[in-house]
Amino acid sequence: MSSVQHDWPSMPDVVQRVILNYLKQLRKSFEPQLEGVLLYGSLVRGEYVDGHSNINLLLILHECSLPNLQHVAQLTEKWRKHGIVPPLLLTEEELRQSVEYFPLEYFEIKDNHVLLEGRDPFVTIHINDQNLELQCQQELNGNLLRVRQRFVEGGGRPEAIAALLPLSLMALLPCLRGVCRVLGHPSGGTSEAFLSNLPNTLHVEASVFLEVLEVKQGFRSPGKHAWSQLVMRYIQNLEQVIHKVRELRQHA
Q: How far apart are CA 61 and CA 83, in angstroms?
């Protein structure tokens, strides 16, 4: 399998060595089965923060058999401590057959990925905007319901809020990018740049989302008594986003 390392994004040397060594072991175990390896996520966006970010990979296999899954499980156990999370595993046929069911997930990868080895199936994958819009609206509303539920489940405790807000934002970001794509607005760039532009694209306030992003990246740690205010502002802005997206679609 051919490597295309010249296309790799900028990354810390230690992270590049981790990926190279992981790929070396991957080839050793899967050479006949491995059809493509794609890197996506924070590394590709230039947002990698050591100790806070993951290394996300998509493996395109000839067959997702039980022995192949077991090999990946063994590798994952070994490399998890180096930041490589369990990869997505698909055959190219599965990818093509499921694109209409997971337009948001595949849009995120198609829009921001780097081919590390093999061939890139996303070159010929088409994301239907109508499917993308529907899933984005479903996910936005589901996100709001989950935040409310998990706030109640956690009893409003600061440690519970500290856990739920970054998770919610990481699920929210792809939805916002997808909505902007459907509406014809810019959807790329780093998370910080994208969120900072929300007042121009979706006409919604973005400061609380930027604050939660800094929490997720480890750059901000609100005081014990500030978490409840932060989550209330976050919920209010999420409600505003849902209302604004519905309004924009009605006038599109």
A: 22
Q: Calculate ∠ Cα 14-16-18, nearest 5°.
A: 70
d(CA 23, CA 172): 31
What digits encode the pLDDT tens for the residues 99-114? 999 999 999 999 999 9
The model's pLDDT over 115-149, given as tens digits with 9 standing for 90+, comes to 999 999 999 999 999 999 999 999 999 999 999 99
| Per-residue exposure over 136-151, b if at least 16 CB sit within 10 Å of its own CB, e if not | bbebbeebbebbeebb
| Domains assigned to the chain | 5-124 (3.30.460.10), 129-250 (1.20.120)
Nearest CA to 93 among 60, 126, 58, 118? Answer: 60
